[in-house]
Amino acid sequence: MMLDLDFARIRAHRNNLSRYRRLLKTRLSDLERRFIERRLAEEQAALEALAADAVPAAFTLPNTPLLPTEAGAER
Description:
The chain is mainly alpha-helical. The protein has helices at about 1-25, 30-55. The longest helix has 25 residues, at about 30-55.
């Protein structure tokens, strides 16, 4: 249930990011452009923070060599 809520929030942030990117392609005053750029950065940061919390740690890869040669075993 909490995961569904997290995914809904992620989707909302992604939609906001798309909207702000579309707006940046239009004619804007300098003030409007700065506001949209700031909102874009805030949404991106919020999305990254939420995604880091929402994605289970099981999806992270261990930091171990995959092949013996990568560990320096055959040098």
